[in-house]
C-alpha cells in the first residue's frame, strides 16, 4: 500500500542529523524559548526574506495572534478563499471577526478578480492562503488591499519556500503565518508555527503576547497567551531548514513526474501560474468522479486524501454564519472533485510509477 504521505521517509533522509540535534537539546537543560528558538527565528526570517520571525506553538496560533495584533476583531470582516482549510477560518473567528468568503479560481487559490465585490465598510483584512503550495496572485492582492486600506495576512502553512515572481511567500503582507505541523514542507516533529513580518513593533508585540503578555519576567503588560515554540522543535527545524531547498526540489521533481506521466482525460492536473513556483505541499487533481477514482486507487494499493471534503461555510462549526449549500458553488464543486495523490519526500520512482499507472487505468477498467 502506498500511503498518501509517509512521514517516516523524510525523517530517515537526515536521521543522523535529527538524532544528534535532539540529544544536544535534551542535554542542554533548557527547553522553552532559548538559543535554538532564537537561532531558528533568525534563520527563518533570512530564508523568507522578512526582517523578523517570532516562533509560536502552531499555525493556528500564528493566524489568530496575527489578527489580534493587527486589531482585527468583533464586527470586522476578513476576506478568505471559500476552499481554504478550516484553520484559516478559525484564525479569523477566534477574535470574533467574520470571514467573508470569495470563490477560488482554477488554480485552487483565492480569485483576486472577485475580491472587490466582497468588500464592505467592515472589511479590515485579506487572508491570502497559499493553498497546496502555490502562491496567490500577490501583486494584485497587495494592490487591492492598498487601494482600500486593508491589511494582508498570508497563510503560508502549505507554502514553505514557495515564491511569487521570485519573492518568498510570507514576505508580501503585513504578517506571514507559518505552521510547522509535521506534514508541512518544513515540518517539525510535533506542533509549531511562527509569524514573519518586517514591522519591528508587530514582532515585539508578538514576542510579548506569546509569553503571557510579558517581555520582562513577571511583568505582564497585556493579557497574552502561552504560544511558545519549544527548543527541541526549533533545533530540529534548524536541521530541516538546511535541507528545505533539496526537499522542495525533490517534491518538484515528483510533481513533474506526475505531470508528465498522468494521461487520463477524466483527471485534470493541477494548474500553476507562470509567476508562481509551487512547493507541492499537495499534488491535487480534479476529477468529476472523484470518489470512484479514490476507490479505484485504493483497490490498486494507492492511498489518497481529500483536501478538503467540506468547505468551511458548510462546516457544522460555522452553521451560525448562516450559509446554505449553493452559496459558493465553485468551492462546493471543488470539495467534490479534488483528490491529493501521494506526495512526500523519500517517495521512490517505482512507487510513483505505480500511482501513475493506477491513475491512468481509471475508467478504462470501469464498467
Ligand atoms: C496546517 C494549516 C494551518 C494550521 O496549522 P496548525 O499548525 O495545524 O495549527 C493553517 N492553515 C493552513 C492552510 C494549513 O495547512
How does this structure look, described?
The chain has 367 residues and is α/β, with parallel strands linked by helices. The chain has 11 helices and 14 strands. The protein has helices at residues 7-13, 15-28, 35-48, 59-69, 86-93, 138-148, 200-209, 231-261, 290-299, 329-337, 349-360; strands spanning 52-56, 77-81, 98-102, 123-129, 151-155, 163-164, 167-168, 175-179, 193-197, 214-216, 219-220, 276-277, 283-286, 338-341. It has a 7-stranded mixed β-sheet with strand order 1-9-8-5-4-2-3, sandwiched between helices. Strands 7-6-12 form a 3-stranded antiparallel β-sheet, with no helix packed on it. The chain has a two-stranded antiparallel sheet with strand order 10-11. Helix 2 packs antiparallel against helix 8, helix 4 runs parallel beside helix 5 (86-93) and helix 8 (231-261) packs across helix 11 (349-360). The longest helix is centred in the C-terminal third of the chain and has 31 residues, at 231-261. 46% of the residues are buried. The model has no long low-confidence stretch (mean pLDDT 97). Bound molecules: pyridoxal-5'-phosphate. The site of pyridoxal-5'-phosphate (PLP) has 14 residues, from helix 4 and helix 5. Pyridoxal-5'-phosphate binds at residues 58-60, 85, 87-88, 129, 155, 157-158, 179, 181, 191, 193.
Amino acid at each position: 500500500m502506498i500511503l498518501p504521505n509517509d512521514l517516516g521517509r523524510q525523517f530517515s533522509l537526515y536521521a543522523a542529523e535529527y538524532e544528534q540535534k535532539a540529544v544536544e537539546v535534551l542535554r542542554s537543560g533548557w527547553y522553552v524559548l532559548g538559543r535554538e528558538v532564537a537561532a531558528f527565528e533568525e534563520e527563518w526570517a533570512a530564508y523568507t526574506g522578512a526582517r523578523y520571525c517570532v516562533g509560536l506553538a502552531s499555525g493556528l496560533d500564528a493566524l489568530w495572534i496575527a489578527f489580534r495584533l493587527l486589531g482585527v476583531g468583533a464586527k470586522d470582516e476578513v476576506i478568505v478563499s471559500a476552499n481554504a482549510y478550516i484553520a484559516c477560518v478559525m484564525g479569523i473567528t477566534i477574535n470574533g471577526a467574520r470571514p467573508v468568503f470569495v470563490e477560488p479560481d482554477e488554480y485552487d487559490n483565492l480569485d483576486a478578480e472577485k475580491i472587490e465585490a466582497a468588500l464592505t465598510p467592515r472589511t479590515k483584512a485579506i487572508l491570502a492562503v497559499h493553498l497546496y503550495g502555490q502562491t496567490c496572485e500577490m501583486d494584485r492582492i497587495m494592490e487591492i488591499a492598498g487601494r482600500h486600506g486593508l491589511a494582508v495576512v498570508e497563510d503560508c502553512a502549505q507554502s514553505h519556500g514557495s515564491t511569487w515572481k521570485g519573492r518568498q511567500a510570507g514576505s508580501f503582507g503585513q504578517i506571514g503565518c507559518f505552521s510547522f505541523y509535521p506534514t508541512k514542507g518544513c515540518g517539525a516533529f510535533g506542533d509549531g508555527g511562527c509569524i514573519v513580518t518586517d514591522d519591528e513593533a508587530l514582532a515585539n508585540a508578538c514576542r510579548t503576547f506569546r509569553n503571557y503578555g510579558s517581555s520582562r519576567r513577571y511583568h505582564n503588560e497585556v493579557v497574552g497567551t502561552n504560544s511558545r515554540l519549544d527548543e527541541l522543535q526549533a533545533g530540529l527545524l534548524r536541521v530541516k531548514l538546511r535541507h528545505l531547498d533539496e526537499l522542495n526540489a525533490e517534491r518538484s521533481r515528483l510533481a513533474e513526474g506526475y505531470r508528465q506521466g498522468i494521461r487520463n482525460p477524466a483527471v485534470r492536473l493541477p494548474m500553476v501560474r507562470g509567476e508562481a513556483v509551487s512547493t507541492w505541499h499537495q499534488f491535487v487533481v480534479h476529477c468529476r468522479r472523484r470518489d470512484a477514482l479514490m476507490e479505484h486507487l485504493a483497490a490498486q494499493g494507492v492511498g489518497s486524501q481529500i483536501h478538503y471534503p467540506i468547505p468551511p461555510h458548510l462546516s457544522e462549526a460555522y452553521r451560525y454564519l448562516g450559509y446554505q449549500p449553493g452559496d459558493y458553488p465553485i468551492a462546493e464543486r471543488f470539495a467534490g472533485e479534488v483528490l491529493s495523490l501521494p506526495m512526500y519526500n523519500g517517495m521512490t520512482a517505482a512507487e510513483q510509477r505505480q500511482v501513475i499507472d493506477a491513475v491512468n487505468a481509471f475508467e478504462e477498467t470501469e464498467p
